[in-house]
Amino acid sequence: MSSHIASHTHTTISQKRIRLRIPKNYHEQPVISRLVSDFGLVINIRAAILGADAVGDGWFDLDLQGTSTQIENAITYIRDLELEIWEDDQGESW
Q1: What's the DSSP call for residue 33?
Q2: Residue 92 has pLDDT above 60, yes or no
Q3: Are the C-beta atoms of residues 69 and 40 closer than 8 Å to each other?
Q4: Which of 4, 48, 54, 67 is the most buried (most CB within 10 A)?
């Protein structure tokens, strides 16, 4: 789902839905928090699966909202961490 929303400052805001797997060795890392603080995104967690006591991998369905550049930079950051990411470009419901 890549949609565009016009903000009040005439900056085009994009929205992108991704699915992200965060392995247990990253559970102590603020990966999702950095998408907000380092890249200026607004994040909506649509769904999440995380085992009891954070055992195993975490799965997150996220809506990312920001400029196209912010979203692209955030996805590059995720890929640089070698985390699994799926992008929902067809607007499918997972």
Answers
A1: H
A2: no
A3: no
A4: 67
Cite the beta strand spans of the chain per DSSP E: 3-6, 12-22, 42-49, 58-66, 84-88
CATH fold of 3-88 reads: Alpha-Beta Plaits (3.30.70)
Q: How far apart are the first and last CA of the chain?
A: 12
Confidence of residue 11 (pLDDT cuts 50, 70, 90): confident
Whether 24 has a pLDDT exceeding 70, the answer reads yes
Domain range summary for the chain, segments of one domain joined by +? 3-88
Closest CA to 7 of 55, 47, 65, 61: 65
Locus of tokens 């699915």: 19
Report the Cα 45 to chain-centroid distance in Å.
8
Residue 16, Cβ density class (10 Å: 0-12 exposed, 13-18 middle, ≥19 buried): buried
Q: What is the mean pLDDT of residues 21-40?
A: 92
Beta carbons within 8 Å of 36's beta carbon, 6+ residues apart: 42, 43
